[in-house]
Request: fold
Amino acid sequence: MLLAAAILVLHLLAAACVAAVMPGPAGWVLGALLMALGVVLAWSRALLRSASSVRALEIAGPQLEIQLASGESFAAEVAERRYVGRFVVTLPLRRPMRRTILVTRDMVHGDLFRRLRIWAVWGRLPVAVKQLSP
Reply:
């Protein structure tokens, strides 16, 4: 919700700047178009309400299985250049579509986020080692 509000506020500021620089109806129309773009972006990217929004990620070996809100599911190839941080993981997709998936720590359970970070760095999941008792 915070990301959606930030997108809307920044688009409102951009619209105000355009209206200040371009006086007259052209500035107001362009400002209104910027606000409409902000609403569409907040709806699809921040609130994840569009049919093409990612709903689930499933790690299947070196590939990532992606499920969209429309119910469509497909295997995607993740590019080598990924960002893995303490609070966020970005996964740029190559095929079948070019887009970047951003996963923050509060989107999934802690252990699942840790496993996603390990997979993003190493390209595979950790193997659980059973401790042997003497």
